[in-house]
C-alpha cells in the first residue's frame, strides 16, 4: 500500500488491542482508525489548535506552549492545518516528542498539500497520521469538523491558541467540553478577529493561559510530577561535581546559605568561598533553577 507519505500502515478496530482507550469514551467513536506511522504515538496528550490564518502572535504562542509540553514528553495532538496547528507539530518535532495529526480525509490524500514534507517528518520521527476514513478518501469540508472530536477525544486537554467566531478551532473546544475534557485558552487582543472565539471561551469559563507559569501549573495538574522532573533534567545537563551535589541537596529540601557552604567546603577539586557560593546561587536563580523561600532558605524552582 503506497501513498505520498511513506510509513507503516495499520488499521485499528474498535474493541481490538491497540485502539486508543480515550477514544472509546466518545459516544460516536470510529469503528476503524487508519494509522500511517507509529500506532504507539496515539496516547493521551495535549491538543493544540488554532487559526489557519494565524497572526504572528498566534503562531508564536502555538510554538511556545506546544514546545513546553513536548519538552516534558507530552504528545502533541492537532489537525495538521496551516497556521497554529502546523507550528504545534513543528514544536513537538523540535523537542523530540511524539505528535499526532488527525486528517480530514484519508491519510493518502494529504491536505494541505504543502504539508507533505511536514507529515513525512512526523511519521519518520515516530508520530502518526490518523483518519477514520479509508486511505484514499478525498477530504470534504464536513469531515474536518467531524475529525475535531477525535483531536479533543484523544487529548487530556485542548489548548486553544487563536479562534475566530465561528471557526473550526472553536468547534474543537466544543467537542472537548462535550467529552468532559479541560479547555485551556490563550487570550488575545479584543481588537483581533482571530481572538474573538478564544476570548469568548474564557468569558464562558475556560481556563486562561496567561504566561508560562499558568501553563506549567495546568500541565502539572493534568500529567503529574512534571515540574520537578524538568528541573532535575535541566540541572543534570549543566551541572557536574559539587554543583550537582548542591542542586541535589536543594531539590531534596530547602537549604540555608550556611548549610550550602558547609556542603561546598567538602569539594576536593575547588575552593569555595562565601563570595563564590553567593555568585553560584545568583547564577542558579537567574537560570530559574533555584528560588529563595520565605525565611531566607533556597530550594529548587518548580517549573
What is the topological layout?
Layout (H helix, E strand, L loop, with lengths): L8 E5 L7 H4 L7 E6 L8 E4 L6 H16 L4 E3 L5 H12 L3 E4 L13 H9 L3 E4 L9 H14 L2 E4 L7 H11 L3 E4 L10 H8 L3 E2 L3 H12 L2 H13 L2 H12 L4 H8 L9 H13 L3 E3 L5 E3 L3
Parallel strand pairs: 3-4, 3-7, 4-5, 5-6, 7-8, 8-9
Antiparallel strand pairs: 1-2, 2-6, 10-11
Helix pairs in contact: 2-3, 5-6, 9-10
Structural summary, described in words:
- The chain is an alpha/beta fold.
- The protein has 12 helices and 11 strands.
- Helix content is 44%, strand content 14%.
- A hairpin with a 5-residue loop joins strand 10 and strand 11.
- The longest helix is centred in the N-terminal third of the chain and has 16 residues.
- 45% of the residues are buried.
